[in-house]
Amino acid sequence: MLEKMFNPESVAVIGASHVKGKVGRAVLDNLLNGYEGKIYPINPNAAEIEGLKCYKTVLDVPGPIDLAVIVIPSKLVPQAVRECGEKGIKYIVIISAGFKEVGVEGARLENEVKEIARSYNMRIVGPNCLGVLNTHTRCNASFAKKMPPSGNVSIITQSGALGTAILDWSEATGVGFDSFVSLGNKADLNEIDFMEAWKDDENTKVILAYLEGITDGKRFIEVAREVSKVKPIIVVKSGRTSAGARAVSSHTGSLAGSDAAYDAAFMQSGVIRAETMYEFFDMAGGFSGQPIPKGDRIAIITNAGGPGILATDSCERYGLRLATLSKETVDALKTTLPAAASFYNPVDVLGDASAHLYRFALETVVKDSGVDGILVLATPQAMTDPVAIAEVICDIKKQTDKPILPCFIGGVVMDEGVQVLKRHGLYNYDDPARAAYAMRMMARYNRISQRVYPQPRQFDVDREKVRGIIDRARKMGITVLGLEALPVLEAYGIPTLKYKMAAGVSDALQAAREIGYPVVMKIVSPDIVHKSDVGGVRVGIGSDEELENAYNKMMKDVSLAAPRCRISGVLIQQMATGGKEVILGMNKDPQFGPLIMFGLGGIYVEVLKDVQFRVAPLNEKDAMGMIYGIKTHQMLEGTRGEKPSDIEKLAELLERLSQLVTDFPDILEMDINPVKVYEKGKGCLALDVRMAISPK
Amino acid sequence: MLEKMFNPESVAVIGASHVKGKVGRAVLDNLLNGYEGKIYPINPNAAEIEGLKCYKTVLDVPGPIDLAVIVIPSKLVPQAVRECGEKGIKYIVIISAGFKEVGVEGARLENEVKEIARSYNMRIVGPNCLGVLNTHTRCNASFAKKMPPSGNVSIITQSGALGTAILDWSEATGVGFDSFVSLGNKADLNEIDFMEAWKDDENTKVILAYLEGITDGKRFIEVAREVSKVKPIIVVKSGRTSAGARAVSSHTGSLAGSDAAYDAAFMQSGVIRAETMYEFFDMAGGFSGQPIPKGDRIAIITNAGGPGILATDSCERYGLRLATLSKETVDALKTTLPAAASFYNPVDVLGDASAHLYRFALETVVKDSGVDGILVLATPQAMTDPVAIAEVICDIKKQTDKPILPCFIGGVVMDEGVQVLKRHGLYNYDDPARAAYAMRMMARYNRISQRVYPQPRQFDVDREKVRGIIDRARKMGITVLGLEALPVLEAYGIPTLKYKMAAGVSDALQAAREIGYPVVMKIVSPDIVHKSDVGGVRVGIGSDEELENAYNKMMKDVSLAAPRCRISGVLIQQMATGGKEVILGMNKDPQFGPLIMFGLGGIYVEVLKDVQFRVAPLNEKDAMGMIYGIKTHQMLEGTRGEKPSDIEKLAELLERLSQLVTDFPDILEMDINPVKVYEKGKGCLALDVRMAISPK
């Protein structure tokens, strides 16, 4: 899939140019620098460029063409694309700018190009991009200044400038690339297509992506789940914060989406998110050159105490465990390390340690079955030989399937050693914190690669009932439902506190007697959102007499506070006692669709913002993950002698809510607040609900 | 102070050596490389070393000596130090190892050296260190391989290896040093002495320290408060996590102390803590080469959208504000930047921007009075000229007192520009996140430099009463007091819920009648810590009859559950209603002494660990800072229509507790749990207390 894009037998450069400094020249030069297929410059005003015969259009080229690179002014692009179609070219890279990013006219042009490509069944990268390249075929169909070193990282970038910076970084650190794609406006091919294409690509071990938005949330999750089981996907998604999101929308036309949705989607699909460029690079370096650790028990070898402590601090901060070395390992270390060395983790081989001693320590520790990965620290001391130590690491790395992350600290003196590591494809971390971070993410990926994604459960529900409620509401012009939506919950098996609707006072009295005192009375009106504010809620009604009084008072209060509202009646509800209050909710994300929210009620949501989001549909693991994902989950597990809450049932409620909002795209927003969770085995009850639906 | 240490007129090297690779040779070579004072090699077995006349002992040197560097085996050090004393040398750097760090015998030797130095009024650095150096006097009295570039950063390090790495890093980044001190075992001079010495040192603009422990907590806070007002102190304190702390104690003899105490002490004394080496370096780079921003409103100038968004994200993550550019600024930018540029913050000068355009944008933005600092991003694009852009930055930097942090992204291509920055003393951040981090810390330092530290308030208290209670308890062999310590609180003006001690049932009845039902009854026993567990607490006692029954049942229950405990009687206490529960506490830190704790009661402390610590004595700002420092402080400010709590009174209680534990070092631990805080103006009441005292 997309194979001919990176490994074409022939490439046409539409807009190839003689002129130094022109993009059409840069692309041609890049291709001439090592690509072994046929190159056809296309330019109506030249007979020959750089010694190659030049053609007026692709239609004039005698042989077949696999890939066309377009670098002509945007207005001329549709015609050129049409000609590519006629010629039977399947892949086009449009480097030219002047499309969606410049406004309405550009967007129209982009659509035209898309239509033409679709009609000829062609696939397009761009427009408004840097191009694509592959280091193994040496097909550099981009205007990037340099070909990066060859390697096993493939990268997608939505920012050309960051793409260039990343290529430059690649040269500096020695982390090599396989394929590089600058996405540009994503008129056709997007990040998902490339992830999918690289899933089974032997040359790609790690997939990196810099994204500002995702084109198709659902498909992204689907594809990323498959791909992330096979190889790590590391993403920097910018526009995380609100100010950042503003910058995105002024930068490209892409919708930033809510960041909670991105976090949830990445989590649910095994995608690893980097926050900064350094995290991005540090993970790329680790995943590219090292095996995946089987666990999180880390050993540290160092030639100085201080950095050893810093590494230990960092491991703990990132949730790695400091390995406890076995007695055999400690005893073995004692045979050869000097008496003043530290034989426990961190293993301190001391400042005057030779490369030989490093080798002994590393060989010994790597064999310990209680160690999943190793950080090897080296600081420049009197006797330190960085080159020899680097060679030891490269050597032992070949004999083990455990990651050994080198951490040569110190700028200039250690550089010779760092160069040796680099030549062997090993990325150096010059701060133990960065090495610990990378190791933690690699350990996390170990779990991701083993994940299973259960199918969401399908509960037996009453769809027709919900359909009816929504349709009736719409007919009445109602788009926000309050208590009237309680039957929606019931239809989907979300139990509610016993209640009855009542049209008048005698109805209400009968309802209260059936339910049993004490009861709560709530006003039911399509026009009232905050019932309490208008005197529309009365709790603890204990008798017929109290109820009559409460009813009359409520009618008076509400008609005073909200004179023109339509009153459908009152709702008589059982008094809730005991249980813990939680909130279940849903809002729609433009990229990912329904996003389910969960949190503990009151202060926990309002002050601590201790909530979890997941993209629907939820499976059982997602639902459990939401509940255990909040910081205050212990509140539900039972603290201070309390019994644990019915977490299983609560998880089921989340799944049922997920099924409801997935079945009915008409539902735009939903708050089930509060839901009472009772102790284990006793279930949950929804007390109130608010549901917004689309007008049609 | 310590001036002759860094600027001596003459230096003796005791243990100077011919032999390449020996420390005694390395120190001599380092001094010979630029130091212009007199150098005296001391070695009984040589007549001359490196062309310098050699002496048997310092006593044989004809002229005066300001500084002696000792590099002989540890056993010989006491004698050499004594000779230095006789000679009248005031400063000694003991590089030799083999002291406290190797065990009991070494510690004895170290003490001997200390005693000798004290008797001659000499000051010592080390032993077991790398040495000291100063780049301005070029006095390199260390065995570090290289002299770092000259600059305005002075550094203290407790790890020689990290010291070497930092010197090496200095060369790589161009951040220059004034003085460098490797502390070693800190037998005499420690981090505080150097902070103090550098406070008024004109050559030092920034103080860095890598510490594993602090020698004298109280003095550290005192000195750091003074120094941090004048220049920033940046500290990496390792051994943060529990595993890290283990590594500290196996590494040096220094006590790690509790990390909460370090965090509190740093916060209270204006010391900025770095978590990683990169944070450490990034701050050093920023503080060293840039002015301090007057606020946190940051502008971003970029030649590409992607990095601009990343920078925006990072600014928000670190709590910086994205500056809103004035209309004048935006209009001015519009006159010259291309139409497709972004004129708002981040200002995008576009990928083909010349250095000239950068200059225009930077000059315009720097003038905006709504901008406190600027990040200038440059990525390698087709037209990018890193050298020219770097020159623009260096140039405009001279005309402004606002920090301009350069952020040249991309390894190899941007390097020429980075070198230009470096030559002008400007540190480059190759990840926008790192620049944003440094800027945030610089903005934070702006507030630190303006801080005032009010004197702790002294309340009118009854010391004698507390003295008496403690003495009586000790006489009885009691070291943990429960309710018996309520009078201690009262003596220090911490109000308690109305209570009476009762020796028997008739006493209890009378007490209850006086207090007024309902009451609570609690067992009073020096042997019972968890009263509830033995049936020793009864709440809601409403009448004489209930009280009699409760009394009898409690005596039975307690004697069954804790048969051998001594029962002093019961405590009858008023029933507490309303208010919010908080916890006040104190525990002793080995380095910093009494550490005051504050948190909201129950779940907030137990599950969320939402607590604040401060080192006593507390001033009013400290106390308020503790209350507003917890994540859930809104609980006390009034949420969901509740009235705000009496925060002023609560702060006073914290200060009173601080005065109590400061007055009585006998108190080792204290929990006042719970304290009820009532609404504003209605004060607080302590309900229960637990106090541990030292046996004598």
Automatic annotation (TrEMBL), chains A, B:
* Organism for this UniProt entry: Methanocella conradii (strain DSM 24694 / JCM 17849 / CGMCC 1.5162 / HZ254)
Q: Which residues form the ATP-grasp domain?
A: 486-522
KW Cell membrane (keyword) present: no
PROSITE patterns in UniProt: ATP_GRASP
Work out whether the entry's keyword set contains Iron: no
Alphabetized GO MF terms: acetate-CoA ligase (ADP-forming) activity; ATP binding; metal ion binding
What's the protein name?
acetate--CoA ligase (ADP-forming)
Q: Which Pfam families match?
A: ATP-grasp_5 (PF13549), CoA_binding_2 (PF13380), Ligase_CoA_2 (PF19045), Succ_CoA_lig (PF13607)
Enzyme's top EC category:
ligase
